[in-house]
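Archive record:
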Amino acid sequence: MYSIAELKKGRAIIVDGDPYLITWNQFSKAARQGGVMATKMKNLKSGSVIQKTFQGNDKLAPADVGYRKVQYLYGDGSSFTFMDLSSYDQFELTEDMLGDSVKFLSEGQELDAMVFEEIPIGIKLPPTIDVKVVETIPGVKGDTATGGTKPATLESGITVNVPLFINEGDNVKVNTESGEYMSRVD
């Protein structure tokens, strides 16, 4: 059992019989009262997000969430097909179940699938991914007075701000939590 002090981003717990993943948390304590933990949690079965505040003496059961290596095969915009790399079974996850992770998927990519009671319920992205720039405007030499960034469209379809020296065809490292450019990859 977890106390409220152990609740943090990325921890999976059971609330009302369903598994939830904590996506945000903030602890606060008023004078003479016990602490409270405000959270935002994503239901791992339905994909819905709720806000819930836990009191100082609440005890919460951990969700038995496991992980399996999978490969992303393809998507049609509303459902996305993956293959379990140990059994070669294919399964689909909906856009609601994947959330913002959809922006970082590319065909053939290997990921960890979250599994609850032997049923795949989501994916866990690596902290960073390497992705190819497919479209960007050329940087103008000497135009660095404003910090020197420009928009670039990546092969996954998302647009990020990159430094002026990045060109079409370059590979870049992107943070999957913030969606920000980190570095160029050689």
In short: The chain has three domains: 4-28+36-62, 66-124, 128-185. DSSP finds one helix and 15 strands in the chain.
